Amino acid sequence: MLIERFRAFQPQDFVFKLAQSEEDQAGFHALRRRIFCDEQGVFQDDDRDAIDESMIPIVCKPIIAGMEDEVVGVVRIDEREPGVWYGSRLGVALDFRRIRRFSSAASVRNQQPCNAGLGAIGAGLIYKAVSTANAIGCHEFLATVQKQNARFFERLHWQPLEEIELFGLPHVKMRADLNYYQPAASVA
Hints:
- This protein is α+β, with helices and mostly antiparallel strands.
- The protein has a single domain, classed as 3-Layer(aba) Sandwich (Aminopeptidase).
- It has four helices and eight strands, in the order βαββββααβαββ.
- It has helices at residues 22-39, 104-110, 120-135, 150-155; strands spanning 14-18, 56-64, 67-68, 73-81, 84-92, 140-146, 158-166, 169-176.
- Strands 1, 2, 3, 4, 5, 6, 7 and 8 form an eight-stranded mixed β-sheet that branches.
- Strand 4 and strand 5 (84-92) form a beta hairpin.
- The N and C termini lie far apart (52 Å).
């Protein structure tokens, strides 16, 4: 008897959107907890903070058989002073961090570039976050990024500003190039 190994199914079609439904918001918070509490141990039981009261949650969900599946990527954005927006709590589910290809429908569906390659879901979330803020009055978009991820952001048109420590970990404060992240065609 011959037993062949099969590759695990990895979807290639995704939607990047604001988390508006209860299901999307529950998935948003559950994934953050898995990444920042359980996996990384940055926070003990929950990673929620005062920013969650005024933030806009963004999620990435795979499209399987024409239907949205569970939340596999998250990021939140918030305006901390007029026109100055921040992105934070960017995370991608462990099984989706190595997605290498998107279907051609992903760019059309999301009205944004969906680049293939390592970190593709993270890059899509970043694009959705910055372009959404840019569409609603952003003139500066900042983030504090864990230091090991700073180079990834630089490849996505971000400029490092300073190194800082947050939650006992080295971070880099960074600024997005708003000329690269054109305002979103729709904020949804």
